[in-house]
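hey so i finally got around to running both of the ones u sent me last week. sorry it took forever, my laptop kept dying halfway thru and i had to restart like 3 times lol. anyway pasting them below in the order u listed, first the sequence line then the structure token line for each. didnt double check formatting much so if smth looks off just lmk and ill redo it

first one:
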Amino acid sequence: MQGNIIQQVFQQHFAAIAEDAELPVSAFRAGLAISRCRTGAYGQHIERCRDGCTVRTRYHSCHHRSCPQCNAVPRANWLAQQQARLLDGEHYHIIFTIPAVFRHYWQVHPEDVTTDLFWAAKEALFRLCADQKYLGGTPGILAAFHSWSRRLVVHPHVHCLVSAEGISESGAWVKAKRDCFLPAKLLMATFRSLLLRRWRRRLKANNWSQALGTPEKIRSELQRQAKRPWHVQVQPRYRHGKGVATYLARYMRGGPCHAKQLRWSNGQVVFQPKHAEREAAVRMFRAEVFVREYLLHVPRMRQRTVRSYGIYANRGTVVAARNASRPVVPTKAKAITNTFAAVITSCPHCGQPLLSPWQSSPWAQGPP
């Protein structure tokens, strides 16, 4: 048996689930890729050290974004790209969530609800930031969608990394006027109003599935939730946005959980959430149920789970010019941990790195 616990569970139980006609194409491809990753199904190559004392076979990865085994390098590349495009200044981390009664909406219409969440969060931030009382300009927004909670429960929400400065209509750079940036209650009410208005339009256009209930039931639920408080969290100000970007990178690829959080025995998968303080936080699944829960959070084909708005929506010329205009502040050199560094294998005998044919020969082609 190869791979980590997640792959082992998929190798034994995904075949039975793959026969389900209701399984989305994206979930089927993800399950197939996870089961076959680094097993030889995608090819292989030989690694050897320069002295030839170690020769071994290296199986190719699937490179699927939901595979937990082969996403260290893509995560590192994504994080480096995002950190390079951020403003060198203060940021806020804002989280937009929806009530529990609407989680079923996402399960039935994942693409539409995800798009609506992105739109409502972006519009709420832009409308309030345009007010002179708060910012008076257009900020930079890096938004990421997550569909699960720490306990692996369906929990659609959007994380937004928002710059504490932006560009006004006149082209001048402006900074946030308040330490708390935006009033949480006003931001919540704006987000709630925008999202419910968009969903009412979908209901009027008959775009909701009958699985959600009758139009009268949906309309009644929308009216009821319009009067209740939603959860929109505005975190304290960060000196820079790199820490939040690192947090988001952990969930961009590799699936909703990690193999270190799981134990598997007697057909039961035990999931231990991070920072679990209570025994009730531990969840137990039958192996097939765990596979279905895992595939539930696989993004649909061509679905974007990360989006950029405002001054982060361009190619970075505005941000680069702003960062270059800042005075250089001398800082003490310190080691920076690479959270998603790729593992470099070396020969156990001579210590030299193990090279592939395309690494040792300048004219050889790269890996498939």
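and the second one:
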Amino acid sequence: MSLLNDGLRGSAHKLALLATGGTIACTRGINGLIPTLGAEDILRAVQADLPCPVVARDVFMMDSSNVQPEEWCALAKATEAALQSSDGVVITHGTDTMAYTASALSFMLAGTRKPVILTGSQLPLDHPLSDAKSNLLHAVTAAMQGVGGVYVSFDYKLISGVRCVKTHTTAMDAFSSINGPLAGHFDVDGVHFNHPQLFTPPDNTEHRLRATLDPSVFLLKLIPGTSPEVLRFVKEMGYRGLVIEAFGLGGLHYIRRNLVQALRELEESGVEVLVISQCLHEKADLRMYDVGRNMLQPHVHSGYDMTTEAAVCKLMWALGQENSQIWLGQAIVGEYNEPKELE
């Protein structure tokens, strides 16, 4: 799907801009950059080039390092409310945790038929080399396409919210689509939406806001020699969910320090576990080896090729729903590729 940018001007669209802070909203203070610009200020910077009316609203103003599950819930509710009176929503956000926010919103707003586009910048609006205006106008243009789902628009790319990972700290090309194709891109011919975000709910229901999260999720990246006591700590501290970044296809060591036995004890206590690979590309698959098959229990799930961000957010979200097992049992918004059957 593509559309020439020039043909958009004057189109009968109305969008909402929700501002949350981040570098795009920063000005220089005594001790460095600090978010001070509100939604109206950001909108004013591109007003002359906007292809359609945009209504601005501030949700919060924070460095994205401080954005946590409570902010995700507030933002999901603000987005759903804005979608009631607009054709799409653009969200400005800091880049450090944008991929987490995009994943969380993808689950909480799963199945939305209108576009929700997150964007931001590597440099503040007033910097002479800033990417802020370009990214913002691209996000607005993408939101006018009417393609439902949650996406990140950054440096001429559109990335599904559950495939987005920040892979560079300073490059303008800050984000990558991991284990999935780009949702779309921009070029001289306009906007191309090639792979819209999927929606495959287990109960075949229509979209509705599910803005409840349980933040009691722990992330553990294994290293050779990780003590089984770490898994016991997870239970003792009251965590209800654990994401494990395992070795390769999902390996855990069991000689001398038996993580497999500790994981079995954790699972028996009712803690929900998602196992993904600490390799950035391709999948974890606990079915491949005998030790992995023995790990697959009712509360231990293979996350296949999910990103860390998507796995953490999905587990928080699933634990906030009435029946977490149903939501953990299949891909909801294309967060992983369905595995092939093993012979």
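quick thing i noticed on the 2nd:
Residues 1-10 have pLDDT under 50 and may be disordered.
anyway thats it, ttyl
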